[in-house]
Amino acid sequence: MRLKDCHNFNDFRTLAKKKLPSPIFHYIDGAADDEVTYKRNTSAFNDVDLVPNVLRGVEKVDLSTTIFGQKLDLPFYCSPTALQRLFHYQGERAVGKAAQKFNTMFGVSSLATVSAEEISSLVSTPKLFQFYYHKDKGLNDAILERAKAAKFDVMALTVDTITGGNRERDLRTGFTSPPKLTLESLISFAIKPMWGINYVTRGKFELPHLQDHVKEGTSTATSVGNYFSTMLDQSMNWKDAENLCAKWGGHFALKGIMSVEDAKRAVDIGCTGIMVSNHGGRQLDGARSPFDQLAEIVDAVGDKIDVICEGGIQRGTHILKALSIGAKACAGGRLYLYALAAAGQIGVEKALGQLRTELERDMKLMGCTKISELSRKNLRFRNA
Hints:
This protein is α/β, with parallel strands linked by helices and 384 residues long. It is built from 16 helices and twelve strands. It is globular.
């Protein structure tokens, strides 16, 4: 399979599997425990049917939306994800440039492999910085100040990683960051020589936001699950989130909200948005899907803050359904990570372009020319 043969999410996944060593592919592809929630994140969209209208004059469709005070040309964006230069040597540089081409938002992780400063110099599209709350308060302050100095538009505190999820695929493959060679993993790296050549020759693998403060994940190999469980502050509470919001002083979101109660508290502490998310099914297996929780959260706080549906999105119709429920935008990681692994920047551009094409076509078939025309009137819930 080649990039020209990739026509949808699963095609990009197939090509990524062909390009990546097994431990790295399964790090992207895997989730917690039995991966029930991971699968449910996408299958939940199948429980809602679309009811289109016709004869509406749909030759021009406007897909733009406004979140966190930023107008985006697309109602979906690239969620922040860690370790991107493990998947392709271009890493965050490729994803940021692709997002800029489509004038949509780009998220950068605390565990990014390219610095906030470099991203800010490369990419002018709206940018979100994803914050992990570490035990090391000096590290927290340093990361906050770097993101602020780099003029990021939004800070998003991840709140669903208070301990690492049970990612059994990583246990089986021995995945760590940086990659650790074992007899078993050596074979998987050896049979994908181009990945190894790029890893060695395309610039040192670094975690620039962490490396001056901690060894874990930078010079000392560790799994992401272990990193969460040992380096992040498990005493983090609502007061800490409120203080971080105040220190940031701009648009601030909580990433990983799944209950109405927590959504309301996010409003109370000054958040301007929330990501309804279960971390791609990688944390608590058996949790509901973001799409299943979306309606009750939108009904509770959708008139007060921006509600974003994050997780499980593989098709334009998935975005269409979430927007119809009342989400201001959608986001995802795997929706571009497989494409990044498959072909770098041109892969991400193709994935984002295909989603845009699908969504524009779907809007026309629904009889809608702008996002504000979508509503629950055009949905039917199979389990209602």
